């Protein structure tokens, strides 16, 4: 179990966070917006005045209410489920400070239980128990809990994904936490990108500035999908981006135009399977006869790869057919002309996390605290690993080749662009979970 206590000097104030939350709820269709002419402001109304709103509003109105708030968020990813219990302190209605985060993760991911939803719900029950041990008993009934599943469940057949969600919903309903009928859902990929961008910029303090230039882009690489989000400074980016890639977000009385997109099937684990010949629509759905082969694996290698509850036999090619250039060619085929390339990424500063951080650390390019790397260093390290494989990481050649191709030939980053790779920022996990929790607390 991990409890992160923020340093007193780094407590982060949230001023005007409601505006950001209102936008996201309007964007997702959960809110309608009405204009109140008597006061000249926008008023948000929820189409589903459920239990959370009733209990939450009652708690807000209660004299002597607690100045401490909790929110419980479970990220049900394709390779694992991650618990985030956030503790906040409220100084006023417009001043809420993040105090601490308790983080815990388990493997495998929820999608691995596609054929056994009861066992999948049981895995989540363990995380709920940890949350109950973290949130004071007296506050549990007013503490909202949610599980948001990502690409792993998006790639399952709809009936199997829904069976898992229904079982987890029942686990939540048997807990003491505040639960509503949509507490357990498959999250939209665009929300992943928006919430991740918010988390990064909130934690580095960029949202406290009125200067748009202070924000940083966010790159998230999961197992099943990948997201890119940044605030363009060049009007040409706004004009030339495909429809739906740019949307307005209002935070701290300032409106940002955000470029955001999620690519399903381009996460690292899905990319492995696709580079070994599988079609995106078959991932998590169809068993494979025989062995999947790849030039990216060590010559003569034979082993197994497990993803979302399915095990695949995999093998490398004979000596002379394996290696970096053959692997690089396979990675290029994955991303070339399939990912939009906004020119502005060549100048935009970016934070990169999730598998970007993990593979950089495991390959020895950065330490536990993270670091800064040029985009070109992923390709350089891929060449080295493909030539001299790392015994403990047989997929490292493939993973680094794909990451390099995704960054340079997919998104169009310049080889000299510098990325800041982090697992945590000021002791808080770099992920979409914090942004999603703020939205939930609204």
Summarize the structure.
With 442 residues, the protein is of the alpha+beta class.
3D architecture notes:
The protein is α+β, with helices and mostly antiparallel strands and 442 residues long. It has 13 helices and 21 strands. It is 33% helix and 28% strand. α3 packs parallel to α5, α8 crosses α12 and α11 runs antiparallel to α12. The longest helix has 18 residues. The chain is globular, with a radius of gyration of 22 Å. About 10% of the residues have low confidence.
Tag the structure with descriptive keywords.
442 residues; 28% strand; globular; 13 helices; seven-stranded mixed sheet; alpha+beta
Largest sheet: 7 strands, mixed
Low-confidence stretches: 7-52
The proportion of residues forming helix, as a percent range, comes to 25-40%
* Rg, Cα atoms, Å: 22 Å
What is the count of DSSP helices, taking H or I runs of 4+ residues?
13
Going by helix content, strand content and strand pairing, the class is alpha+beta
Average pLDDT number:
86
- Global shape: globular
Number of strands: 21
Give the end-to-end Cα distance, rounded to a whole number of Å: 28 Å
| Percent of residues in β-strands | 25-35%
